[in-house]
Amino acid sequence: MNTNAHRQPSQARTPNHVEWPTVFLIAVTWLSFALLTFFYQQTPLWLIIPLAAYTLTLFGSLQHEVLHRHPTPWQWLNEALIFPAMTLWIPYSLYKQTHLKHHNNDDLTDPDRDPESYYISADQWETLPNWKQRYYQFYNSFVGRFFWGPIHIIAQLLLSESRQLLSGCQHTFKRWLVHAAACALLLYWVIAVCGISFWEYMLVFVYPGLSLSLVRSFAEHQLAADPKHRSVIVEACPLLSLAFLNNNLHAVHHAHPGLAWYKIPAVWKTEREQILADNNGYYFSGYREIACRYWLNAKESPRYSAASKPA
Questions:
Q1: DSSP H helical ranges for 8-84
Q2: How far, CA to CA in Å, does 178 sit from each of 83, 186, 205?
Q3: Where are the domains of the chain?
Q4: CA torsion, points 2, 240, 76, 87, in degrees to nearest 10?
Q5: 3-state secondary structure of 239
Q6: Is the Cβ–Cβ distance between 61 and 245 less than 8 Å?
Q7: Burial grade of 279 (CB within 10 A; 0-12, 13-18, 19 or more)
Q8: What pLDDT, in 10s, does the model give residues 72-126?
Q9: Helix or strand or coil: residue 261?
């Protein structure tokens, strides 16, 4: 396979067969969630929190797999398998819309074109008061992203979507109506059946799950003039690689977005040297290295530099 990510990657193709490893993993994730919530009252928090974080992170990774048209030839069935909103905080249709737009590799990291960019345009940056610039510097550290990131992400989403709703946007209203139904199914089980309060679920399940997911996205992209140099390779341990469905090998995913998660490591193994040449060696040996390097230091300036754009 050619891993040249500068060209736009081919659109994800619907598989012509059922990808059973993904179906199995979806079933295991739902079973794990059911057991964690059903036995919540009898299980100590020190055990529940890491297991809940892992389960919700894995569910988010499976949502990502589904929006790329896995694991069956029938997209309605794929989306039904992840319809109850385990993670609660974002409508699946919004995530799908923004993430597919994010896959325009030439626009990666551009805050005006990439909806998943963590950068701030130069014009906007210059208008920010000093305290807010310092806040975004903190947010671009590992501590800021891991511990504070969920509050920032959820608040930013709710503010943006509230503006859309108040402006009378029917599309936004419809997606939140569908999301409300997805949340209602999930919360009936959590609150009525398992006896977990809404705020307990948010603090013990949703917040840690989003925190762990933000570990993956923290270093996924960097500013670079060449789009091929913007996506990372992180050789994570097997446990985290599974939680992230190998999206830690992010340069491979951006070059081949339609590739099933369990096929990504083979491409990395056989084409390692070419992939690292293509992404200019944007590589980490694991998330421990990332955490140690950027624990309290910003990975990069949040200010988006025009010099990072290709000539």
A1: 20-38, 45-67, 75-81
A2: 10, 13, 22
A3: 20-303
A4: -140
A5: helix
A6: yes
A7: buried
A8: 999 999 999 999 999 999 999 999 999 999 999 999 999 999 999 999 999 999 9
A9: helix
In this structure, the number of other CB atoms found within 10 A of the CB of residue 61 comes to: 21
Helix (H, G, I), strand (E, B) or coil at 205: helix
Q: Which two tokens stand for residue 124?
A: 């906007």
Token duo for residue 219: 């270093």
CA–CA gap between residue 159 and residue 189 (Å, rounded): 28
The pLDDT of residue 15 is above 90: no
d(CA 154, CA 102) in angstroms, rounded, equals 19
Q: Which residue has the tokens 């913007």?
A: 230
Sign of CA dihedral 71, 97, 162, 114: positive
Specify the amino acid at residue 98: T
- In Å, how far from its chain's centre is CA 125? 25
CA–CA dist 205, 191 (Å, integer): 13
Please name the residue that has the structure tokens 């797999």. 65
The encoded tokens of residue 269 equal: 């193994």
Q: Which uninterrupted H or E stretch holds 192?
A: none
Number of helices and strands (H, E) in the chain? 16, 2
**Predicted TM-score of the model (pTM):** 0.93
Q: How far apart are CA 308 and CA 292, in angstroms?
A: 26
- Closest residue by Cα to residue 229 from 6, 1, 2, 3: 6
| Total length of the chain | 311
